[in-house]
Amino acid sequence: MPETTAPASSSAAVEFGVLGPLRVALGGTELELTAPRLRTFLAALVVKAGAKVGVNELADAVWGADLPRNPRRAVQLCAVRVRAQLERIDAAHLVATCPDGYRLDVPADRTDVGRM
């Protein structure tokens, strides 16, 4: 998979939170992700913002011991669906594809975890 990187300025206003319910906000606009698997997928990326999270780690986070038949494809579908949700606030580009994983392209200080 080709690696994608977002311009730094495009992520400046998007904030992510995982301490408490998952929170994604751009300015005053809150994005609500209702699907539990998508929330878990995005939360795993938020916790390691700016770093690659491997496909196996994402699959374990989302499905635990009850892995789907094709975990790599299932993780890929989560990425596609999360990007589709993030597109509502013009932020789909923040979920970058890396070799064998994904990365949330925001500085750590744009996450509640990173500010701790």
From TrEMBL:
GO terms for molecular function: DNA binding. The keyword DNA-binding applies. SUPFAM superfamilies: C-terminal effector domain of the bipartite response regulators (SSF46894). InterPro entries: AfsR-DnrI-RedD_regulator (IPR051677), OmpR/PhoB-type_DNA-bd (IPR001867), Sig_transdc_resp-reg_C-effctor (IPR016032), WH-like_DNA-bd_sf (IPR036388). Keywords: DNA-binding. GO terms for biological process: phosphorelay signal transduction system; regulation of DNA-templated transcription. Residues 28-104 form the OmpR/PhoB-type domain. PANTHER family: TRANSCRIPTIONAL REGULATOR REDD, TRANSCRIPTIONAL REGULATOR REDD-RELATED. This is OmpR/PhoB-type domain-containing protein. It comes from Glycomyces artemisiae.
